[in-house]
C-alpha cells in the first residue's frame, strides 16, 4: 500500500502546478496568478507569476480578520533580561502597521532595502513584517558578525535605512551593537540615509546627529498603514550566507512561492495546526529564524516563540524545558548542537523531569548533520519523535524530512529521511550520472525547484548560475555530499566545498583564510573544520610564516585569533591555529586540507598519491598534538 507521503510526493512531482496551486488556495491573494509555474525564461523559473499578495497580510491581518485577533501570535521569552512579553495577533498587527507607517514616513517605499541588525527582540520581528507590509526588502544581518561582514552586506544590498539596537545580550556580557554598526558604515562604500536605534537599558548608545534616530521618536505618532499588494515574484528579503570565498551570497526570497511553501510546510512537514505553539530556537539572523520563527508559524496562525537565551547557562540546561512548559510549546525546532550542549551539562536529563512537557509532541533538528547519539539521547529522554531534516539558506525550507503531517515514516538515525514533496533529489557523480544506492556522490536537485527556493542571487544572476547551476546541467548543486540507501533514505555526510558548520552556523573557511593571509607575518595558510564534541565542527588554522619572521608563535596566533574575531565576528569561533613549516600539497600545488582535517580528527587517511613531500604530514601531526588534537579517539 502506498503511504500518504509516497502518494503526496508522487503527486508533487507528477503535477507540480496542480499540487502548488492547491496549496496556494490556503493564502489570501489580491489577484490570482496567471501561471502557477512559469518556465518562460529558463533557468529562471518562477512561481505564481501574475499573482499579487502581501506576505504580512497573510501572516497577521488575515488571522485577525478571521477571528484569531485575541490569540497569542508572538511570545518573547528572554531569560537574559528576565522578560516575557506576549503579543496577540491584533496587537502584533497594530504594532507592525505603525512601524510600517514610520518607515513610510521616512520615505521608504516598495523595493527599497532595509537592513535589520538587531538582537532577538520583538521589534526585530516587527521590523521584518513591517518591511513586508510596505513591500520593502529586508536583509537581516546576524548580530554575531563583525563590522566588516556587515559592511559587505550594506554595500551589496544598498539599504536606504538600517534598523538596529543599542546592544545584544550574550550570557555574561552586553554586546554593544552601535559601535559595530558605526564601524560598518565607516567601512562601507554605500552610506544609508538613516539608522534607527532601539535603545535598550543595558547599554544606551550615543546617536549620530543628522543620521540616527531613536526608535521611539521614529515610531511616535506614526500612522498605521495598510498592506500594499506586491507581485508574487517580487523579493520579500535578501539573506546573505557564506559561500566559498569571503564574499557572502545574497539569497533572494520571493513573496508568493515563499508564503505558499512555508504555509504548506507547517502542516505537511511539521504537522502543526493553527492555534498551536511552535518554537524555533534559532536566531532571526539565520534562515531558520526567518522561516520558522517569523514567517511560517505566523502564516499558519500558530503562536511563535522568540527566545533570547541559550540552551545552557540561561540559567541552566533546563531552559528549553522551562520554555516548553511555560508557553505550551507543541513542537521545537533547533540545531543538534543545542542538544549536545544540554546533554553535556545534564546527561541524565534530570532537568526535564522538573517541567510539565505534556503538550510537547515533536522535536525537529536541522542546520548540521545530526549524529545518531544525539538523536537517540533526545528521543529516549523526551519520549517524543525526534525528526532530523535537511535544508539550507537557499531553499528556505526542508529538502528532505520525515514529514510528520504526511504520516511519519520509520526513523533511521543519521538520515533526514526522504525528499520533501516538490524536491526531485538525486545523487550524482562527476559525469552527472546518478550513482547506485549506498554510493557517495554530489547531492543535486533536479530543476525546477519547488516554490520558496531562491530564484537567484541579489543583483547577481551570473553568480547564481556559476555557483549552483553550472556543475550539473539541469540540476541545482546543493554543495552537500552524501548517499541514498536502498530504501530511498538520504544521508548527508559533508560539504563538497569550503563551507563548515560551527554550532549550526554556516561559515566559510575561505573567508577565514583571507583574514589569516592578510596578516603581515603570514606567507600561506589553510583553515579546516575539525570535528567538535559540542559544536559539530570548529575551525583550525594552519599558517606558514614568512621567511625572516622571528616573533613568537604564540603571539602571532593570538593576533590571528583576534583578527578573525574582529573581521568576521565571534560567531566564527576561531580559537586555534598551528604555525607549521610547510603546508602539505599535491605536486600541482593544491593544499591537502582533507588530509589535515583527518589528522586533526584522528581518523585514518591514505597517503595521497600526488603528495609532493609525505614528511610534512609528520610535522603537521606533531604540531596538532601540541594543540591537543586529535581530541577524539580514532
Ligand atoms: N551577538 C553577538 N555575539 C554573538 C551572538 C550575537 N547575536 N551570537 C553568538 N555570539 C558570540 C557568542 O557570545 C560567542 O562568543 P565567545 O567566543 O566570546 O564566547 C561566539 O559568538 C560563538 O557563539 P555560539 O556559536 O552561539 O557559541 P556559544 O559557545 O556561545 O554557544 C551553543 C554554543 C551550542 C549553546 C549555541 O551555539 C547554540 O545555542 N546553538 C544552537 C542553535 C542555533 O542557534 N543554531 C543556529 C541555526 S539553527
Ligand atoms: P544553512 O544554509 O546555514 O542552513 O546551512 C546549510 C547546510 O547545513 C547544508 O548545506 C548542510 O551542509 C548542513 N545541514 C543542514 N541541515 C542538515 C542535516 N539535517 N543534516 C546534515 N547537514 C545539514
**Overall pLDDT confidence:** 96
Structure ligands: coenzyme A, adenosine monophosphate
Oligomer: single chain
In the CATH hierarchy, the architecture of the largest domain is 3-Layer(aba) Sandwich
Notes on the structure:
This protein has 634 residues and is of the alpha/beta class. The protein has 2 domains: 4-309 and 389-477, 3-Layer(aba) Sandwich (Rossmann fold), CATH 3.40.50.12780; 499-626, ANL, C-terminal domain (GMP Synthetase, Chain A, domain 3, 2-Layer Sandwich). It contains 18 helices and 31 strands. The protein has a 7-stranded mixed β-sheet, sandwiched between helices. A 5-stranded parallel β-sheet has the order 7-6-8-11-12, sandwiched between helices. Strand 30, helix 16 (553-567) and strand 31 form a beta-alpha-beta unit. The longest helix has 17 residues, at 89-105. The chain is globular. The two termini are 44 Å apart. The relative contact order is 0.09. Bound molecules: coenzyme A (COA) and adenosine monophosphate. Adenosine monophosphate binds next to strand 25 and strand 26.
